[in-house]
Design goal:
22 helices; alpha+beta; 5-stranded mixed β-sheet; 5-stranded antiparallel β-sheet
Length: 675
C-alpha cells in the first residue's frame, strides 16, 4: 500500500464468482478463497494461475472465512456450522450441520480469548435478530435473541472481547449505537443450552450520533479501543446538503472527537487494522493512520491546555488538510473536538506566533506563516527543522513541503531549490505526502530534485515517472552540463575506453565462442562502437536515466504512457539501454560498478517495455534498424552461451561436490572425464 503497487493478481474462470472475501493464512502464508459458494481454493504468492491452485469442493455454502494470527483459519457456513480449515481439508465432503433454521447471517467476527478462538455472528429472521457465540475447539455454542425495537433495526455490528465478556456494538437505523454485553460462558449441559436459546439480550444506549443539530446517518462502525469508535456515514444538517464523512467518537464522554469530509463518496464500508483505517474514497483505496491513547474529560471537550500531557485522545493524520484543521490535526496532543472553537482561536494563535514561535506546534506555525514574506517563511521553516523533535516533524513534513510548493505555485518567481533538495535528502519522504512537489520540479526543470525523488520515493505514479523520462531525454547535453547532478551511478563505467585486447579478453571470459563473435561482427557495428563502446548520452543524462530505471512501476500502468514517447527519444533511450546491456554482459557477474547503478534485470525489463511500446515504429525507422539488428544478434549470442552452460551444469555440480568432500591434507591426482 505504501508503494501503491499491485504485487499479484489472480482471476477465476469466466462464469465463476468469488463469493466471500479472500483471506491470508498467517501460519502458512497462503491465500484462501471460495468461489461459487462451495469451491475452496488455496494458493501461494508465487502461483500464477488460480485455476491450477489447490481445489476442494465442500458440501455446504460458505459465508465467510476468518483468519486469526495465532490460530488456523475458521470457515463459517451459511447454516451456522463452523469448521477449522484443517478439518475441512481432511474431509471436504463431510456433512455440515444447519443451526440457523432459515435465519440469514448478517455479520460475523472472529477473536482470540487467550489461546482460544471465539466466533461470533448475528442472524436475522422475520425482523428478529439473534447472536451466536461459538468456541470451535470446545464445540461450544450459545444462542441469544436481541431485544426487539419496533421503531428501528440494526444496520451493522462490531464486537470486541475483554475479560471474558463479549461487547457487541450495534448501529441502529435511528442513528444511535447500542451496546450489548454477553458473558463468555463455560460448557453447559444440553438442558441449559435449550434455556439459553430463549434468553433475550437487553441493550443499552452507548452513543447518540448527533452534534450541533447535525445527525450522522452511519453505514459502517468499527471499534478503536475501549473509549473510541469510528463511524463512516453521511452527516445531515438542517438547511444543508448532507456530506459523507469519517468520524471518531469518544464513547466515554459522548463527544465527537474528529471528522473528515469525503467529497468523492465512499462504498459505505470501513475497515480497521493495526491503527490504520481502510476505506474506498472515490476510485481509490485510502489509508489513514490514527492513534488512540488514554482519554480525559479535558481532551474530550477540547479544553486540554498542556500540549505535552500524556493524557490524550485520538490523533489522526488526515494527510491532506484544510486550513481549519491544520492546527488541531498537527498539534499532536490536542483532539479535534469542537471545530467552532478551533476556528475562533485561529486569529489569536496567529498573533501569538510572532512573539513565541518556539511554543507553537508545526500546524500553528504553518498557519501563522501563510501570508509571511518568502524569506521569513524559509527562515522560520529552517529553524523549525533544526529544533523540532524528529517524530513530531516527521509526521508533519508533508505539510511543510506543501506550504513551500503552494507558495511556488502562487509566486512563479519563488523556488527554494536547495531547501527542497535538503528536505528530500534528510527526511523519510514519499510522493503521496506532497504530490505537488514533483510537478513543481518538472515545471521548474529541476533535474537534480527529480533525480533525488526518483531514487528515494517508493510510490511515484507511472505518469510522473514517464514525465521525468521525457524531460530527461528532451533536455540538451549542453544544458545538463551546467546542472548539478549526482553522477555516482555512472562515473565508474561510462567513457572508460578499452583497447581491443581487453575487450576480447572479457568476452572470452564470459564464454563467447568464435562463432558467437562472428555473429556480433556480422551486425556491422560502427568502428567507434566496436573500439570503445561509447555511451550514446553524456554523464549527466545517463545518471538521470539511471534514476528512472530504479523507480518502481507497474507495467500495465506505465505502458500506455511510454507509447506517447516521441520516436527519436525512444530510439535514444533504447540505445542507452543496449549500451548498458552490453556493459553488463562484459562482466562475469553481470553487475555494473558504482553507487545505485542499474541491475541487469532493470535494464532488461525496460528494454522489453520500450520495445513493446514502440516496436512497430522502430521497425519503420531507418535509424533504428541497425540498432534492432545488433540487439537481436547480441541477445542470440547470449542465449547460445547460456544454452551451452546448461549442457555442462551437471558436470559443474559434480565438480563442486567433489571439491567439498576432498580432504585438504591428502595429496591426490584425479582424472575427471566429462562426457
Amino acid at each position: 500500500i505504501s508503494d501503491q503497487k499491485p504485487l499479484g493478481c489472480w482471476s477465476v474462470k469466466h462464469g465463476q464468482i468469488l463469493t466471500c472475501p479472500v483471506v491470508c493464512n498467517f501460519e502458512t502464508h497462503e491465500y484462501i478463497a471460495v468461489h461459487d459458494d462451495k469451491v475452496l481454493r488455496i494458493w501461494k504468492n508465487e502461483d500464477m494461475n488460480l485455476d491450477k491452485a489447490f481445489k476442494a469442493t465442500l458440501s455446504a455454502d460458505v459465508y465467510r472465512i476468518h483468519s486469526l494470527p495465532h490460530a488456523g483459519p475458521l470457515v463459517l457456513f451459511r447454516g451456522g456450522g463452523v469448521r477449522s480449515l484443517d478439518a475441512l481439508l481432511e474431509a471436504p465432503q463431510q456433512e455440515i450441520e444447519n443451526l440457523t433454521s432459515g435465519e440469514a447471517i448478517r455479520w460475523s467476527g472472529a477473536f482470540m480469548e487467550g489461546q482460544e478462538p471465539v466466533l461470533i455472528f448475528t442472524t436475522e429472521k422475520d425482523g428478529d435478530f439473534f447472536v451466536y457465540v461459538q468456541k470451535p475447539k470446545l464445540s461450544s455454542l450459545h444462542k441469544y435473541k436481541l431485544e426487539r425495537q419496533e421503531s428501528a433495526k440494526p444496520l451493522c455490528f462490531t464486537a470486541h472481547i475483554t475479560n471474558q465478556t463479549v461487547t457487541l456494538l450495534c448501529l441502529y437505523s435511528n442513528d444511535r449505537v447500542y451496546q450489548v454485553l454477553i458473558p463468555l460462558q463455560q460448557d453447559t449441559e444440553e438442558e441449559e443450552e435449550e434455556e439459553e436459546e430463549k434468553e433475550i439480550l437487553s441493550k443499552s444506549l452507548l452513543l447518540n450520533l448527533s452534534v450541533s443539530g447535525a445527525v450522522l446517518k452511519g453505514t459502517s462502525l468499527v471499534v478503536l479501543d475501549k473509549d473510541h469508535v469510528a463511524v463512516l456515514g453521511r452527516l445531515a444538517a438542517p438547511q444543508k446538503d448532507s456530506k459523507e464523512c469519517l468520524t471518531i467518537w469518544n464513547t466515554k464522554f459522548q463527544t465527537l472527537q474528529t471528522s473528515k469530509e469525503l467529497p468523492l463518496g465512499t462504498s459505505g464500508q470501513l475497515w480497521c487494522y493495526e491503527e490504520k483505517f481502510f476505506l474506498i474514497h472515490g476510485k481509490v483505496l485510502t489509508v489513514i493512520m490514527y492513534k488512540c491513547e488514554t482519554s480525559s474529560l479535558a481532551a474530550a471537550v477540547g479544553k486540554l491546555k498542556d500540549s505535552q500531557t500524556p493524557d490524550v485522545t485520538s490523533f489522526v493524520n488526515w494527510n491532506t488538510l484544510e486550513d481549519e484543521e491544520l492546527v488541531v490535526s498537527f498539534q499532536s496532543r490536542e483532539p479535534v473536538a469542537l471545530k467552532a472553537e478551533s476556528r475562533r482561536n485561529l486569529r489569536s494563535r496567529s498573533a501569538v506566533a510572532e512573539e513565541q514561535p518556539e511554543t507553537l506546534s508545526v500546524g500553528q506555525l504553518l498557519l501563522s506563516l501563510r501570508d509571511a514574506p518568502n524569506y521569513v517563511l524559509e527562515t522560520r521553516l529552517r529553524k523549525l527543522m533544526a529544533r523540532a523533535p524528529g517524530a513530531e516533524l516527521q509526521a508533519a513534513i508533508g505539510c511543510v513541503v506543501t506550504a513551500l510548493t503552494d507558495r511556488c505555485k502562487k509566486n512563479p518567481k519563488y523556488y527554494p531549490q536547495s531547501f527542497l533538495q535538503q528536505i528530500v535528502e534528510t527526511w523519510d519522504f514519499s510522493y503521496s505526502l506532497c504530490p505537488d512537489l514533483m510537478a513543481v520540479a518538472l515545471e521548474k526543470k529541476d533535474m537534480h530534485l527529480l533525480q533525488l525523488c526518483l531514487e528515494r520515493f517508493p510510490d511515484i505514479p507511472e505518469e510522473i515517472t514517464y514525465a521525468c523520462l521525457k524531460a530527461f531525454l528532451s533536455t540538451s547535453e549542453a544544458h545538463l552540463q551546467n546542472i548539478d547532478v549526482n553522477i555516482d551511478s555512472v562515473i565508474c563505467y561510462i567513457d572508460v575506453e578499452l583497447n581491443n585486447k581487453e575487450v576480447k579478453t572479457e568476452i572470452v571470459e564470459n564464454g563467447f565462442s568464435a562463432a558467437m563473435k562472428q555473429d556480433m561482427c556480422d551486425s556491422r557495428i560502427p568502428k567507434e562502437r566496436r573500439d570503445g563502446e561509447s555511451c550514446p548520452v553524456g554523464l549527466q543524462k545517463a545518471a538521470l536515466l539511471n534514476a528512472v530505471l530504479h523507480s518502481a512501476y507497474t507495467e500495465t500502468f506505465l505502458l500506455p504512457h511510454l507509447k506517447n514517447l516521441p520516436a527519436q527519444q525512444a530510439v535514444l533511450f533504447l540505445k542507452y539501454l543496449y549500451y548498458l546491456y552490453v556493459k553488463c554482459s562484459e562482466k562475469v557477474n553481470t553487475t555494473l560498478p558504482g553507487i545505485r547503478s542499474p541491475t541487469i534485470n532493470q535494464i532488461m525489463d525496460w528494454m522489453c517495455l520500450l520495445l513493446d511500446a514502440h516496436f512497430t515504429v522502430m521497425v519503420m525507422l531507418p535509424e533504428a534498424k541497425e540498432l534492432l539488428s545488433n540487439l537481436h544478434k547480441f541477445v542470440r549470442a547470449q542465449v547460445r552461451f547460456y544454452s551451452e552452460l546448461n549442457k555442462i551444469e551437471g558436470s559443474l555440480r559434480e565438480l563442486q561436490r567433489l571439491n567439498h568432500v576432498r580432504e585438504s591434507q591428502t595429496y591426490s591426482i584425479e582424472v575427471l572425464e566429462i562426457i
